[in-house]
Amino acid sequence: MSARGRVGRRAALALAAAFAFGAHAAEPQQPARVVRIGLLGPPAAQQPDPVEQAFMQALRELGWVEGRTIVVERRFADGGTDRLAAMAAELARMKLDLIIAAGQPAREAARKATSTIPILTLSGSDPVREGWAQSLARPGGNVTGLTFTLPELGPKRLELLKEAAPTVRRIVVLIDPREVVDAADVLRETKEGAGRLAMQMQVVELHGAEGLDSALAAVRTHRPQALFPIAMYPHRERVAAFALRDRLLTVGESVEEAKAGYVLTYGIDTEDLVRRGAAKIDKILRGERVGDVPIERPAKFRLIVNQKTARAIGVVVPPSLLARADEVIA
Fold it and tell me: Could you tell me the fold of the domain covering 35-329?
């Protein structure tokens, strides 16, 4: 689905890599027609994605019920990006009412595939500089959404890591630069933050899911005490399992990563983003021009501590940090 990117990623999101309600009545007005939307992203198709599930629930609350008022065409690249261009082209040929693009690679694939179908994305940090919007207030074109990566969060995550384990000196950043459009900014700010904390930072890159095993092997050669995965949302389970085996303290971005086993995560409140994104889709599907729907930046953030993982690797999280956490996984 790192320092913001996931789904992830980061998502996304991994979508997942991977949106506040507008002023809607408790009983939303039912749409007069069935619409078709596409969902394009990197998560593995066989694995239910919690962000997608939350997103579909938010749309239901606005009257868009899959199978009744919307039809969803899903195209997932199984954690990679090589197939996204063909998938985006396929969705464009369907003449959909809207495409949801999860992450930078999916957004760019969708942009290249169509200049007419509205695209809602959760990606990037500076849409104007990155070339997919004329301005935040009026993006123009056919793309809007919410920015996701915030380079300045990298140093903050390192500060939290240092607070949890003051003796940590060696850290490896694991990043897929194809998933983070501002990877250079993210790495620069994170390295500066590491320097201020007297930490030695190494960077290991991978390029797609097929490079994960070799990247994790490279991580091990640096003998780190902590691991900072950026834009590793689709791979969060495998990264968490690796870190647990090697007794590495992990710091990430999303609550989904904390649930997968990362010790600490600090990042954008994905529930808030999901609802804000769903509200934008509702506006577009009800007739508002996509180029007039403002792009928004994240407004809410969450700190999660996984006490179970911390205990397993011998880290005693200070009570002061636990008291500030929005959620503690016992």
Answer: Rossmann fold (3.40.50)
